[in-house]
Specification:
By secondary structure, this protein is an alpha+beta fold. The protein has a domain of 283 residues: Porin (Beta Barrel). Helices cover 26% and strands 32% of the residues. An eight-stranded antiparallel β-barrel has the order 1-4-5-6-7-9-10-11. Helix 8 packs parallel to helix 9. The longest helix has 36 residues. The chain is elongated, with a radius of gyration of 45 Å. The relative contact order is 0.12.
Length: 423
């Protein structure tokens, strides 16, 4: 081997030893930080794609609602009725008594004969044929006796409308011309449609129970919390979080070493089995109708997540309590007197108000955001009381530091039911 090759080998060996001496490069915490950052970037990218794929079709469906059938304007019954002759009101008119025998009665002629006679008269313009109502009125006028000059008569009310003889195709008339003035005075204004407001009480749960198997090297946060629950009782007023876990963990190590308590090797790989129970949620929601088929719903929801983790460090119970504010927009697809089918789209922001693993109190400072797509069926029970069943698809965009039901599978299915009261 030449001199140059020996120098080159010495240089490469020095670089390798230098590189291997760096503990941070092969530190499990460093690899875990890189893995979490890559996983978080991937989750955000997938969440944006899924949210766009869900929101865009539903927004187009809300803008163009083919299921919404507008109620046709009802035609007025008065406007469709045939025009009836106006009968003047009775007045105090006195007539002279006329002997019926002195009035010459003229027998009625058939309409066809009367029409033929008028056609034979020269220089007369043929008139349109009168309706039977007009013929009866003209005949009654012939039979009415004429009052004498000494009789005092009163003119009928000037407000009475005279109706001309109907033609072959009557002209359209307004309702005001067909309804008397005294009846129009009692007409009530059309009531304005009031916005529908309802309050609902809901309860729900996840539909799938999940089990997970992790490694202590891939879950350092849980491993350190599990060690802090062993041996000497750990008590502090400061809640443990991902930001201060290292400082609290090393303090706990020093305390256990000073008390000669048993401490297992923290870097021995071991499997951790997580069993996540179904999440439970309860809510108080209010809904306001913007349109007859469109409304917005919001309120307050409480969610409880419970998990059990088994490992060589023992069994640890994990409990998280969330308070969330959902905002949903729902649209009625089909409805009748008893049933109503609707779809809803919205989101929810949740804050973890309490979290613990074993006897260690943990802090989750970040909000957990999620998108929701739901459909529901509502049944009318009694007056202003409705029962509804609402399945939901939930996509969680952010995660907690503790491993929960929503960590590895952010897309979940839940079923909610409750009572809705119309105000």
């Amino acid at each position: 081997m030449g001199y140059n090759q020996e120098k080159k080998k010495e240089w490469t060996d020095a670089v390798r030893e230098n590189y291997l001496s760096e503990e941070e490069a092969f530190s499990p915490a460093g690899w875990e930080t890189v893995r979490r950052r890559v996983h978080r970037t991937e989750v955000v990218r997938r969440s944006a794609i899924a949210a766009a794929a869900v929101l865009l079709p539903f927004a187009a469906l809300l803008l163009w609602s083919p299921w919404h059938n507008t109620v046709p304007a009802q035609e007025s019954i008065i406007a469709n009725t045939e025009e009836t002759p106006v009968v003047p009101e009775a007045s105090e008119t006195t007539f002279d008594v006329v002997d019926p025998q002195s009035v010459a009665t003229v027998p009625d002629e058939a309409p066809a004969v009367r029409k033929a006679k008028k056609a034979e008269q020269p220089g007369l313009i043929p008139q349109p044929e009168q309706t039977p109502i007009a013929e009866d009125m003209s005949h009654d006028q012939q039979q009415t006796p004429t009052p004498s000059a000494d009789t005092k008569t009163t003119n009928p009310d000037s407000t009475t409308h005279s109706t001309p003889a109907p033609s072959g195709q009557p002209a359209p008339r307004r309702i005001q011309e067909l309804v008397p003035d005294d009846l129009l005075a009692f007409a009530e204004p059309e009531p304005q449609q009031r916005r529908k407001v309802s309050v609902s009480l809901s309860a729900g749960a996840g539909a799938i129970q999940r089990n997970m198997i992790l490694n202590t090297m891939s879950a350092p946060y849980y491993t350190k919390l599990a060690y802090m629950n062993l041996g000497v009782r750990y008590e502090t007023d400061v809640k443990i979080s991902a930001a201060n876990i290292n400082r609290q963990y090393y303090n706990d190590l020093l305390t256990k070493t000073a008390s000669n308590s048993y401490l297992a090797n923290a870097f021995v790989p071991s499997d951790i089995e997580y069993r996540h129970d179904l999440p439970l949620s309860f809510g108080l929601l209010a809904k306001i109708g913007l349109l007859p088929w469109l409304g917005v719903e919001s309120g307050v929801e409480y969610t409880y997540l419970h998990s059990v983790a088994d490992s060589y460090l023992g069994t640890q119970e994990q409990r998280l309590h969330f308070i969330g504010i959902p905002v949903r927009m729902d649209a009625i697809i089909w409805s009748n007197r008893l049933l109503e089918v609707y779809a809803a789209l919205g989101g929810k922001a949740e804050k973890c108000v309490s979290a613990s693993l074993g006897r260690i109190k943990c802090d989750e400072p970040r909000l957990q955001w999620s998108a929701e797509l739901a459909g529901g069926i509502q049944y009318h029970l009694w007056d202003r009381v409705n029962l509804y069943l609402q399945p939901e698809l939930e996509w969680y965009l952010t995660q907690t530091d503790l491993i929960t039901y929503r960590t590895e599978h952010p897309l979940g299915f839940a079923l909610h039911a409750g009572l809705r009261f119309d105000l």
